[in-house]
Amino acid sequence: MPRRPLHRLPPRPRFRRSLPLLHLAPNLVTILGLCAGLTAIRFALVERWEIAVALILFAAVIDGLDGLLARRLDAASPFGAELDSLSDFVNFGVAPAVVVYGFALQRIGDSGWVFALVFAIGCCLRLARFNVGRAEPEAPARTHFTGVPAPAGALLGLLPVYLSLGGIWATENVPWVVALWIGLVGALMVSRLATLSPKALRVPRDRAVWVLLALALLVGVAFTQFWVLMTLMSVAYGGTLVYAALRRHTVARS
């Protein structure tokens, strides 16, 4: 009697797949920003305010770089998106709250810590809402954000430190003013206020050269009066928020 041919089992799937090292670049940039935020907390604990704030600003500058790299390299992934969100909470929620608390708010004790918590939780809720919106079906490109983005919130929250380091106003001597300010910024991050998005900015071709000259001016000021520049930028961004709030109120009444 002829033997039946043995059925060969299908080959086992290979679970280990190689990954191009270049595809890890976005996550490496995110980790770099996270290290900057954590190190900012370390320098805040020893009252090295200039270095602590500079590290948070560095994390804000490279915040958009990981997403850009992921799109350019076609390396976007759910893991990278979650890593970026968790890094943003540390860099722009926890680190600025610790810096501002150590700089001014600890002078009013537990009340100062409450306002630091309001800021950090506001950032956390802002990021959670963004993550939920990211999971929804893709919508047409928007020209504004809903609420103050986490990096911009961190830059605004650090305004009292800029004022003091720039010799403009010793805000550490008015901790209640700082507390109210950082609480307001935390509320703005979770608000429904339509805030400015870089996607909405358009430059006429015949004025592009003036934009480049303005950029050169900003770089020069950054090397000579950095804290004054950060103060002016924060005030200018705050002005756009006031304009957005007034416009929203006008539209609501009409």
SSE map:
Elements lengths: L24 H21 L3 H13 L1 H10 L5 H26 L6 H26 L8 E3 L3 H8 L1 H7 L9 H15 L4 E3 L11 H17 L1 H28 L1
Antiparallel strand pairs: 1-2
Helix pairs in contact: 1-2, 1-3, 1-4, 2-4, 4-5, 4-6, 5-8, 6-8, 7-10, 9-10
If you had to describe this structure to a student in words, what would you say it looks like?
- This protein has 254 residues and is mainly alpha-helical.
- The protein has one domain (22-136, 143-253): CDP-alcohol phosphotransferase transmembrane (TM) domain (Four Helix Bundle (Hemerythrin (Met), subunit A), Up-down Bundle), CATH 1.20.120.1760.
- 67% of the residues lie in helices and 2% in strands.
- It has helices spanning 25-45, 49-61, 63-72, 78-103, 110-135, 150-157, 159-165, 175-189, 208-224, 226-253, and strands at 144-146, 194-196.
- A two-stranded antiparallel sheet has the order 1-2.
- Helix 1 (25-45) runs parallel beside helix 4 (78-103), helix 6 packs antiparallel against helix 8 (175-189) and helix 7 (159-165) runs antiparallel to helix 10 (226-253).
- The radius of gyration is 23 Å and the shape is globular.
